[in-house]
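Sorry to interrupt, but I need a hand with the structure work. Could you write out one complete protein record for me, on any chain you like? Could you add the entry underneath, on a fresh line?
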Amino acid sequence: MKGIKKIALVLIITLSFQAKAQDTLSILSYNILNYPFSNSSKADTLKPIIKYSQPDIFMITELTSGAGATTILNDALNVDGITYYQQAQYVNGPDTDNLLYYNADKLVLHSQHEISTALRNISEYVLYYKSPNLSPISDTIFINCYVAHLKASSGSTNEQKRNQEAVALKNYLDTKAATVENIFLGGDFNLYSNLEPAHNTILNGGNVLLFDPISSPGAWNNNSTFAAIHTQSTRSGSLGDGGAFGGMDDRFDWIFTSNDVLTGTNNISYITNTYTALGNDGAHFNKSINASPTNTAVPANIANALYYMSDHLPVFMQVEVDITVGINEQVNSNNWKGYLANNQFYFNANQTTKKLTVVVYDLLGKTRLKQPYQNKQKLTLSLNKLQQGIYFVTVFSESTQKSFKVFKR
């Protein structure tokens, strides 16, 4: 019996190493109503919404200045002891702008790009998941976020303009079709029904198909059948900040995803029933979000914050990150040592490792140097070509990694 117990124990330990480690990412997309132009003090209004939803990825539209972007970071996100949020680079494009904030404890911003349209840019932000079990030379999980604000208002002319913007996005995605994965397209799309050309283009245009995670086609405008998924307007009357009013009766705000997110093909999978118009309890059709009856979807202070912050509700969803850890792939990085001297990065491992890759990132998460090594225990990498500043040097094996913060003089 003792022998059987020992065998069982070994089997349990082995299976535990081979099982999938999992993490959850929360994603929030929000039209913040011409901030800070509409009201520069609204970061205090956004703060409780962020604390309640705790997004790891926060996509916004209708940003009007770089100063506003910084205020959101410092006064709504990195508050009350939280310090892990970072923002992408603010780009002052035509009309209002987009931006992405992210949890830097979990994610790194790999790149960003602006896609031009006739009215507003569509913004691309490529993130990758930070895990000691993932390597950029093998199985790094990339997350491709796109933020869009399509042409507003009803009528066939505006519908065609929305479709032209959607075509610009899908044409760009076609240039990356062979490599793009785990797509999240968030924003304010101003769609009145699934019969609009832009809706069809987003879902079916080009070679990269996108999906509505809750698959709810229909004529959403002023239709009580869709009361539970409406995102505008949070107010029945004007608040004097330029926001639309008339109560909850439109589904303008979305997060579309690629099919691999729905199936989990590329290590990111949608968590069923987490997609929601945050604060919509389905009982406020043509009413303010904080009007009677009492909102049952969120606490009263959050309903009030949503009412005052914007005429739109944010869209929220969660995904699961799956990381397979193999027992035969373990490399102990606890004894890895690294330091900078005379602008040379010196590294010493506890044993010879078959494959190592050294990647140097700047403070924005952009790759500045990348160098592979074979069968090394010690190595030296020159940083002489880099400008003075703070960098993160990350050493990857095939199964683990360790980062060192260095200051290049």
Notes: The domain at 19-323 is CATH 3.60.10.10 (Deoxyribonuclease I; Chain A). Residues 1-19, 134-138, 325-330 have pLDDT under 50 and may be disordered. The longest strand covers residues 344-361. The CA atoms of residues 93 and 121 lie 6 Å apart.
